[in-house]
User: Fold this.
Amino acid sequence: MDPALIWAITGLVLVIVELLTGTFYLVMLGIAAFGAAGAAWLGYDFPVQVIVAAVIAAVGCYAVHVYRVKNKAQQMPSVDAGMPASFEGWIDARSRLARVRYRGASWDARVEGAEAVEPGATLYVLATDGNTLKVVKNRPI
Assistant:
């Protein structure tokens, strides 16, 4: 099979998979694969194709990272922010990892701040980090 076609199919697959994630990093990798497809179509050898893909991927991923960091303040807050959760108990008090009851289920939570928390206390969600909640004792404003 033609190397340009293989690179183009790889790029297309990466762009399609990106539609499921929404991070834009896979779009950059897809564009890098399209760049390598262009290099292959122009007749460059495989090492040149890989270098083209690597350079485009590195520059693109760095650009996405810079954009996300720069616009972090403009991103919408979590829909869970400010919602109450009931403290169940500590998993590891030293690292401030606890279990809380939130929306009828038990969740892992990282308790921000150094305040003492007793079982049954109401904590408030700041954000989510994967499937771990970040919670605080005082309601965020």
